[in-house]
Amino acid sequence: MFPLPRIxxxxxxxxxxxxxxxxxLRRAAEQGAEWxxxxxxxxxxxxxxxxxxxxxxxxxxxxAMMAETPLAELRELEAGAWFGPEFAGEPIPTFExxxxxxxxxxxxxxxxxxxxxxxxxxxxxxxxxxIRRCWPARRPPPLISSFSxxxxxxxxxxxxxxxxxLIARRPPHDWIKVLRLFKCSTIHxxxxxxxxxxxxxxxxxxxxxxxxxxxxxxxxxxxxxxxVDCLITDAPGAIAEALR
Length: 244
Fold this sequence. Notes:
This protein has one domain: TIM Barrel (Alpha-Beta Barrel). 36% of the residues lie in helices and 18% in strands. It has ten helices and nine strands. The longest helix has 15 residues, at 120-134. The protein is globular. The model has no long low-confidence stretch (mean pLDDT 98).
């Protein structure tokens, strides 16, 4: 079974720093996380960036689509002030910049491919190319995860050496078929849908199971008792401390 960590930082440490930024990745490391999850989308000129929304407005204040905004224009924006004034000026990082930092921090990434509509294939290809170029073969490989079945299919075909995870808010009725089809090692599901019955089925089938987004200590303990392997949380330090 794939060795998922007990706790994984969500978008870095999204409760303590602006999501999907380098400072958020650093905060996760400071809190003791060994793994971090973050989102990858393409800029208008095809550069993989750490970002979650199709539109830039919530994070940067600019009402524009990520898929239509080139890297040079993204460099003029900041992604921290919405979270707190002390984070003003924090940039939107490229995937390559994030991987370089993770290597320095000793963190292992769960790379969620989060394609803008119609960009599934391009996002998967671009992310795989960055991993090939920037992630050393001697280090344990990144985990590639996605809601997008097309993105997982491309990853399975073009980078079979990279482990893969299916993301679904609620495990679909054909979850085992999908996991087998794309040779996935893990499934990541919304915590509210992980009953004892479905957890046992997934574990009995031999797959790693991660729950998102788990920020309540009581819920965290319950999920671990049911057999969930990994808690994806905005507050990795606080959840780890509560579980002690």
